[in-house]
Amino acid sequence: xxxxxxxxxxxxxxxxxxxxxxxxxxxxxxxxxxxxxxxxxxxxxxxxxxxxxxxxxxxxxxxxxxxxxxxxxxxxxxxxxxxxxxxxxxxxxxxxxxxxxxxxxxxxxxxxxxxxxxxxxxxxxxxxxxxxxxxxxxxxxxxxxxxxxxxxxxxxxxxxxxxxxxxxxxxxxxxxxxxxxxxxxxxxxxxxxxxxxxxxxxxxxxxxxxxxxxxxxxxxxxxxxxxxxxxxxxxxxxxxxxxxxxxxxxxxxxxxxxxxxxxxxxxxxxxxxxxxxxxxxxxxxxxxxxxxxxxxxxxxxxxxxxxxxxxxxxxxxxxxxxxxxxxxxxxxxxxxxxxxxxxxxxxxxxxxxxxxxxxxxxxxxxxxxxxxxxxxxxxxxxxxxxxxxxxxxxxxxxxxxxxxxxxxxxxxxxxxxxxxxxxxxxxxxxxxxxxxxxxxxxxxxxxxxxxxxxxxxxxxxxxxxxxxxxxxxxxxxxxxxxxxxxxxxxxxxxxxxxxxxxxxxxxxxxxxxxxxxxxxxxxxxxxxxxxx
Length: 532
Hints:
Blueprint: E1 2-7, H1 11-19, E2 28-34, H2 37-46, E3 51-54, H3 63-73, E4 78-83, H4 88-97, E5 99-104, H5 109-142, H6 146-157, H7 163-172, E6 181-189, H8 192-198, H9 201-218, E7 223-230, E8 233-240, H10 246-263, E9 268-277, H11 281-294, E10 304-306, H12 322-334, H13 337-350, H14 358-378, H15 383-387, H16 391-399, H17 403-441, H18 448-454, H19 459-470, H20 474-489, H21 497-503, H22 509-520, H23 524-531
Helix pairs in contact: 2-3, 3-4, 5-9, 6-7, 9-10, 12-13, 12-17, 13-17, 14-17, 17-19, 18-19
């Protein structure tokens, strides 16, 4: 049974939602009702709530502010907005605040029910995912993989290692290679950055732990498979008695790919090295498997790439498409999403990904990535909001992804930069409009709400503009404009202080004295004396 609360200042709306749908038959319990955000928070403090159905416009605390608080304090609660205000800006703000869905009043009964049931399915899926991760976590804690991983890494990465010592270490971990033939398969998680963004670091490591287990358990008994991690890739050491043909080896990999997709819900691509006698061949096979993935381009996901031995490093070099880069940056400044996508496509085509090495394409893509970073710096855009807090880690994650996903990340990054540049331009225009209105009307009884209404934004956003752009609050700016005007009036010795206060926007002379002293450090009389 899922607990849901209904938040709406109209009793008729609350009663309708509660009574017109047989919630109980769908496994949903109405845990309570609230007239505004504050009452809703009291309910959330008292009950374990799964779903919150809320209006936007309400007294005390509106729906958007409520959702923001709930997403921070009760992150497991799924929020659904129901509002008669068909305003895309509200929908955008709601999505940023953590809303799961957005419905416009009047909503049909079936539409409301379908939306809530879809959310219950999402909750169930998340709970199942948590359970899966917990099982993996338990297995991870109970294992001691460090010595085994280190030894296996030395086996393939070290030039002329001490094989007898390494094999002795593996024997302590109950690992012995009984067969004559050795080879390497290198697995790379497709779209690794999406996995990295979805999960915390520990959970990502748990998934890679699960991936290794699946690989070792998927192959037939006649093939010993030992898996370990190397720079976010998974290295499979194959030990066998008979040499498999290419189709048989590809079949093994497809079984692994299917099991990973089924149990872990992501895909991997594979690079295949050669198979030969003696354990010393492992290092050579590993180099081949790496080259299969790094110097042979592939598009899409779940690909199987065999080392061909025909790669020519010189033929892979291509010049950087500087003209296409400038066209992308121009489109980003212009703010057209379609134009950005078109120019980025031309940039990608110019890289010739079908003929040059994957490594060359990645380097050129990162060059454009840093050109976008530089554009943010030049325009005073907060790079952390565009690229995240850890740029080095982001670059590492992207380098492990497929080219298709790398290009998609470039597109999303370019569009985010464009959105920030456009937002900054709009913010500057709005701020100038606010300053202009204040300059013309400061002598009247104006406040934040009046100015915000005149330039068609919310009072909260107006305050944010002043804080972000001028590093000053709205009221401080208004006082400074008024006080500076008063200082000019003090040049006329015939004017009374009461008249100066009134003409500067202060109906209360006593309050004028207080504000003037705060901003000038002198009383009006002292200031007048100093200017005479």
